What does this fold into?
Amino acid sequence: MISSVRGQVLAISLDHAVIEVGGVGLAVRTTPATLATLRRGEEARLSTTLVVREDSLTLFGFATDEARELFGLLQTVTGVGPKLALAVLAVLEPDKLCAALAEGNITVLTQVPGVGRKGAERLVIELRDKVGALLPSASLPGVDHDQVRGQVVEALLGLGFPAKQAEAAVESVLADGGGDTATVLRQALAGLGRKK
It folds into this structure.
């Protein structure tokens, strides 16, 4: 797998750039936002993934490793191929996409051409839990660790768990990456259930 390319930008088109690597010009398909950061004649580095089909080898490039990982993750969803995954990343920045998936925000996801309501629901169902593992919860917009900690501890106290036990369970989940309130509560309860 070709995980990154670095070299001089030879040409920039509407949907790809040509980057010279070791004397070979590689056509790298990417998003308009990434293309806008490239300048002909200057050196560039892109995180990449190679998609192999019977009739083609296509190199896709991204400004960050996180975007590349999201591209691969999107393709694990039924009915999502490389073109649609690239379209999703062209419309939604990685942070915005992760937030929409974590929150189940169908409206944001349907802004992508080719993603209808059913497709957006499928994306949420299949990726909601995986997105938290992909990016640290600190990078998910709207996730406040102190607020989550307080809400989950309060919920566990309301369920009758001792304060020290509740706090320890929540800290354990947050140390493993955490997430939103519902995710942390679910994981904390699972951890407390194992200790009984």
Notes: The CA atoms of residues 153 and 159 lie 10 Å apart. DSSP finds nine helices and five strands in the chain. Confidence is low (pLDDT under 50) at residues 136-141.
